[in-house]
Amino acid sequence: METEKIKETIHMISDENLDVRTITMGISLLDCIDSDSTVACEKIYQKITTKAKHLVEVGRQIEVEYGIPIINKRISVTPIAIIAAASSDKDYFKYAKTLDKAAKNLGVNFIGGFSALVQKGYQTGDLKLIRSLPRVLAETDLVCASVNIGSTRSGINMDAVAEMGKIIKQASERSFMTNTKMVVFCNAVEDNPFMAGAFHGVGERDTVINVGVSGPGVVKHALEEVKGEPIDVVAETIKKTAFKVTRMGQLVGTIAAERLGVPFGIVDLSLAPTPAVGDSVAQILEEIGLEQVGTHGTTAALALLNDAVKKGGIMACSQVGGLSGAFIPVSEDAGMIAGVNSGSLNIEKLEAMTAVCSVGLDMIAVPGKTPAETIAAMIADEAAIGMINNKTTAVRVLPIQGKDVGDTVEFGGLLGHAPVMAVNAASSAAMIQRGGLIPAPIHSFKN
Amino acid sequence: MKAILTTIGKDQVGIIAGVSHFLAEKKINISDVSQTIMNGYFTMMMMVEIQEEQTEFTTLTRQLDELGKQLGVEIKIRREEIYDAMHQL
């Protein structure tokens, strides 16, 4: 019995908030396509509730037997714009309601995949799905949506960017919570277990279990032991810690997959903060040596963190996937909120940080009066960073009606609270109104 | 199945007796034990072997929780694989 190792594991779980953030079952709905939407929805409901029947139960069993918290049990499905395209429905609200009902019946936390992939243009179902979004997000509880508007291989669909600016604005007028359940991507990945951006890619197996592990607190604690050491020691420490955390994800995923009789997909090791004290990515950056997140050096520290996390994770499990890296959602991270409140962290700096972390502008509250074109332009900027750097970028900005810079908005639970941040007041409207496609970059032509 | 049972809390009379009595009652075999005082806290780790058909893990966890409250310590049980997985390839 190796008591030191046992102590270390227990310490990580009890005191440093190490957890399995999510077990996500990916389910293909390609075999549910039907030109009659009622038949399709019935097939969808049956398939999801059959395949994921034991998901929550197995998650709980593992939690008890291994003493590791599993925060979320989720489902991701094939992008609904593809599944619903065969029907002649004018909007896809019915499909969203079906997903919501299935998720509630199963007791899962979220269901993702009310999605469209429009990086190069719209197929029949895409625009219908996009235009259903404000209502879907407002009138369902557990459905998460995503739209991929760009990729390194195909460029950026600026028509879709403009459309998404309008959609986000319309959704915000229905409720301030709607946009927390939607992500706009560039280079979306097909096996992401994290919400709101999870969907089950068409190249995936019929059913698969993906696991997302987290643990910013564990990394911060490990770094407290190497104060003042050279930066390569910092990288090495993060790598080793990431390895241990990912090993646990691999174990949990393997067991879950075995018990559910479903193949195991990937482990996504993403340092995902929660509003809980000591569960912050910003505080890791501060532990590296920044007085406050957002100051000069933040981008370099984040680049190091993101890379070291990946390197540690890759060795630790059979297949790494998803987004793997560090998330920087503002509202969900106590350190980020403090950075914004002190004036050290602003949207411009966050944008720079997204060039080196695993996602993008995430959970950022902006004034309700922000024009749709400005939101679209923020999406375009993020997509450009993703497209040029061959990485995933995401935008989850939240215009808050009736609130302005200096106000705070409370989302509750894991979503935390966010200070409303200032956006650049100069207009981007004329550029957004052009529409069209930003061509794929020269380095995408690798064949 | 092998599991690791950890008991952490303020040192006092009867902790080892309480825990091992409980395990004996449940016919759970203790195959290894290590005990120290760390920073004034009593810390005990036991490797135990549980006959899966005899004991339901959820019930066992709940009973150990209650026992911990009676003894004024925190008792946790986890299957052994989690410790192996994290530190070994």
UniProtKB/TrEMBL annotation, chain A:
Pfam families: DUF711 (PF05167)
Domain of life: Bacteria
Family that this chain belongs to: Belongs to the UPF0210 family.
PANTHER family, sorted: UPF0210 PROTEIN MJ1665, UPF0210 PROTEIN SPR0218
Subunit field text: Homodimer.
Name the record gives this protein: UPF0210 protein FC81_GL000917
The organism of origin for this protein: Liquorilactobacillus capillatus DSM 19910
Upper lineage: Bacteria, Bacillati, Bacillota, Bacilli, Lactobacillales
Automatic annotation (TrEMBL), chain B:
Coiled coil: none
Organism: Liquorilactobacillus capillatus DSM 19910
UniProt family annotation: Belongs to the UPF0237 family.
SUPFAM superfamilies given in the database record: ACT-like
Name of the protein this chain belongs to: UPF0237 protein FC81_GL000918
A family per Pfam: ACT_6
Residue intervals of the ACT domain: 4-78
